[in-house]
Write a structure and sequence with these properties.
The protein has 3 domains: about 240 residues, Vaccinia Virus protein VP39 (Rossmann fold, 3-Layer(aba) Sandwich); about 110 residues, no CATH class; about 220 residues, Rossmann fold (3-Layer(aba) Sandwich). It is about 30% helix and about 25% strand. It is built from 19 helices and 28 strands. Helix 15 crosses helix 16 and helix 16 packs across helix 17. The longest helix is centred in the middle third of the chain and has 23 residues. The N terminus is likely disordered. InterPro entries: Lys/N-term_MeTrsfase_sf, Methyltransf_11, SAM-dependent_MTases_sf.
């Protein structure tokens, strides 16, 4: 501890370094990694005939090892400390005749202009740039100016650094503005010898002649696992890329020491594009009793299933890890923008990297199992990709579910882990008279999903509950044939209004959708169509309801809100806050018939905000039911304007069974995997 300075400013003091090296003696002091770790990077930029300047050499063995390995011999070392210069001269005088040591201040060097091809700095910039005070920055500017002066055009300034944000920002900003090419290498360091938790980097600044005008900047990063540099578009993006590598190193360090109380997530990016290729979640299960074979496993989530509760939520992943029986489970989600050959290629690609996330004490040669559902990586086919001014980037994709069924999904890429709309696809029937395929003949490719939409099936649990809410209507006629007027705000893929239209033969459905792109998507990709009983109004739902309230009251038997919020900073993703403000809800009540029902899909993670929403709803609607969706944040609220319409859950279940019987008698297609009565079993009267 007595070797450390009393203040960061002492790092620039000759007296401090003289005292440091007198107390330390002849023992080498290696800042940021030993020569074997730095050599793979340095050998790319230091040639045998180069004249090399080492600034702030200290008593590091780096120069000696460059010399002894034959990488370079014409090396001039300078340091502000006369003590260490004398020590190093004595150590190398007889062994290395072409290498010299000089006591010199690098802020005012005595060398002629353009004298060196390489300037090498191992930790010196970090030692000087301890803060962003004006005096410190002025000293760094003088250091950079001197390096610029003594380097030839085409020369390289190699700076070994921990890449603290303020240090990297200063170095990259200065030299890129001077027209130099900037490349940042991450140094591969061994776990046993690594001195710092943070990774070590080498900045490679190559001097070009400064061109008149604004020449394009050359900014690149080269992560430790790849030789080919990756070009980045701005200094800010370069700093972000380095910060990502530092975050990964901190995560690995944390995971290597103890079980992690909370789930950690990180992205592994594609080497060529820099885009996320895998998203990893690390889940520890303290309750699992460790043994040799159950300490660590990797779980590959099939493509398209990363949005499911078991894989897409913290609680779901915790349950998955516990049921798998491993002390640490790393779940791996595959990205839709990437291509994957199969489970074997993914395993080969990930094996080295995931071992960096292994629990403490795992033997280095321990074989780690790769798990999945059904043993494959699933199927995902992107059918359509576009951008909407209102909804942003989105995709329509077909994915294979766990029961070999295929589903079509609409995903907004601003919230890529949430399925916006979903429809089941029907397998095509063979043409009449076609013979069955013989077993020995080649089967059709499983990667090609069917394309016909199954309009009889509601994929989303909250849509099923919203339809079940129609049982609250006090219609004297059986519901399937009752003349219902229904308003749906929020189209998405159109599954909800389509289901109501097709199963309730006398219903008239009006849909309000603010985004015209969604109407096009629903029509082209989800089998939606308009007709005499189905009309879409492209408008803001707030404005449309206000207009209806001003024109004619009591128009609708049922009003359904299934509207997502574009503001992800609010703790309520459905609906937008303006849709649950009291003045607007009063307009909704105005256009609802006295015996009607207002059905609201509420997705709110903020407990206080949710309670305030419920309080406003109670003020406007005297009768309020809630149906919570198991395993999801969604809650379906059924609001009625008349307290006389109150029914208990037993009565609601009876009406639901009556509705199901009527649908079956009318021959309406109805999937047996869900039942309306079940949808109303867990209804609570608020």
């Amino acid at each position: 501890m007595e070797l450390l300075p009393r203040s960061p400013g002492e790092f620039g003091s000759a007296r401090y370094w003289d005292r440091f090296f007198r107390q330390r003696g002849q023992r080498p002091f290696e800042w940021y990694g030993a020569f074997p770790e730095l050599c793979p990077v340095l050998r790319k930029y230091v040639r045998p005939r180069d004249k090399v300047l080492v600034v702030g050499c200290g008593n590091s063995e780096l120069s000696e090892q460059l010399y002894d390995t034959g990488m370079c011999e014409d090396i001039v070392n300078i340091d502000i400390s006369d003590t260490v210069v004398r020590q190093m001269r004595e150590r190398s005088a007889s062994k290395r005749p072409k290498m010299s040591y000089l006591q010199m201040d690098m802020l005012q060097m005595g060398f002629p202009d353009a004298h060196f091809q390489v300037a090498l700095d191992k930790g010196t910039l970090d030692a000087i740039l301890t803060d962003d005070e004006e005096a410190t920055l002025a000293k760094v500017d003088r250091m950079f100016a001197e390096i610029n002066r003594v380097l030839q055009v085409g020369g390289r300034y190699l700076c070994v650094s921990l890449a603290q944000a303020h240090v990297l920002k200063k170095a990259v900003g200065h030299f890129s503005q001077e027209g130099w090419a900037v490349r940042v290498h991450e140094v591969a360091t061994s776990g046993d010898e690594q001195r710092f938790v943070l990774p070590v980097f080498v900045y490679v600044m190559t001097k070009f002649r400064k061109m008149p005008g604004s020449a394009p900047q050359i900014l690149e990063i080269c992560p430790e696992e790849q030789d080919k540099p990756l070009r980045v578009e701005s200094a800010e993006r370069l700093l972000e890329a380095v910060k990502d590598r530092q975050h990964y190193a901190l995560v690995c360090s944390q995971l290597s020491k103890a079980p992690c109380g909370e789930q950690l997530s990180l992205d592994l990016c594609d080497k060529a594009s820099g885009r996320p290729r895998y998203t990893l979640h690390v889940v520890d299960s303290p309750a699992v009793k460790p043994s040799r074979d159950n300490r660590f496993a990797i779980f590959i989530i099939p493509q398209g299933r990363e949005t499911e509760w078991l894989f897409g939520t913290e609680e779901g992943r915790r349950q998955l890890a516990a049921s798998a029986g491993f002390g640490r489970l790393v779940t791996v989600a595959l990205h839709r923008e990437q291509r994957y050959e199969g489970m074997a290629s993914i395993q080969a690609e990930l094996s080295g990297k995931v071992m960096e996330l292994a629990p403490p004490g795992l033997p280095a040669q321990q074989q780690v199992p790769f798990l999945s559902v059904g043993g494959d990586i699933g199927v995902r086919a992107v059918r359509h990709r576009d951008t909407s001014p209102l909804s942003g980037d989105f995709v329509v994709e077909d994915v294979k579910g766990d029961d070999a069924c295929y589903f079509r999904r609409l995903i907004f890429l601003s919230n890529r882990n949430v399925v916006q709309s979903e429809a089941r696809l029907l397998a095509p029937a063979p043409p009449p008279g076609q013979k069955k395929r013989r077993k020995d003949k080649k089967k059709p490719s499983p990667a090609e999903p069917p394309t016909a939409i199954d309009k009889s099936y509601l994929c989303c649990e909250h849509h099923r509950a919203m339809v079940a809410g129609l049982c609250l209507l006090g219609s004297p006629e059986p519901l399937p044939g009752a003349p219902l007027a229904v308003l749906v705000v929020g189209l998405g893929g159109g599954s909800l209004p389509l289901f109501v239209h097709d199963h309730f033969s006398q219903s008239r459905v009006a849909v309000v959708e603010i985004d015209p792109s969604m109407l096009e998507v629903a029509t082209r990709w989800f089998g939606f169509s308009q007709g005499e009983r189905m009309q879409v109004h492209v408008a803001d739902g707030l404005d449309h309801v206000a207009k209806l309230a001003a024109e004619a009251p009591a128009q609708y038997d049922a009003i359904m809100f299934d509207v997502d919020s574009k503001d992800l900073t609010v703790g309520m993703s459905c609906p937008p806050p303006a849709f649950v403000e009291k003045p607007f809800l009063q307009k909704v009540k105005t256009i609802l018939k006295p015996e009607g029902v207002f059905v609201l899909n509420l997705v709110c993670r903020d407990a206080r905000l949710k309670e305030s929403v419920l309080a406003v709803l109670r003020e406007v609607f005297p009768l309020l039911y809630v149906r919570r969706i198991e395993g999801e944040v969604n809650e379906i609220l059924f609001c009625q304007p008349s307290p006389e319409a109150r029914r208990d859950p037993v009565e609601l279940g009876a009406r639901a069974r009556e509705l199901e019987g009527s649908l079956q008698q009318l021959g309406r297609p109805w999937d047996s995997s869900y039942v309306l009565a079940d949808m109303l079993q867990a209804v609570t009267i608020l």
